[in-house]
Amino acid sequence: MPTTPPTDAPASADITEIEGALNRISYLTSRVRQHDRLMALAGVSLERAAVALLRQIADSEPMRLGELANLLAVEASHVTRQVQQLQKAGYVTRVPDPDDRRAQRIEITPRGREAIDRVREASVRGMQVALKDWDSDELRQLARLFHRMVDDFYSAEDADITSENVSRT
Q1: What is the value of pTM for the model shown?
Q2: Which InterPro entries match (predicted)?
């Protein structure tokens, strides 16, 4: 089992390289120009935050606003505003929570499903162009490592939250 270096230890060159590459990917995917291009290719008009939220709703069972906010690591008020806009556009609807009739869950509508499917198709086409020279084994390995990295980031975030709670008590 690998040991965790102290947080004040200098980062290895590999970690520094990975952090730099992730920063570049984040910049490339979050640029307004890139988002606008993706929306034009998909034939959909959604804000960047709405795309992330609609993707999460499409990939999940209907859930409460607070659950969505937790999954996206944002404030509930941010999710509330986005859901209201998505609901006005006909992309999501509110349904009763079967566990608590006083509460509501957010569910994607057929119109929302069509919109997010179009966004995903346009995004996948762009990735196919960018990664056209990668062979199947490289793509499979990259996907596996990305999933592992994201899972580890979530685990580390949970560990940080737990250690913060322990240190405050």
Answers
A1: 0.77
A2: HTH_MarR-typ, MarR/SlyA-like, WH-like_DNA-bd_sf, WH_DNA-bd_sf
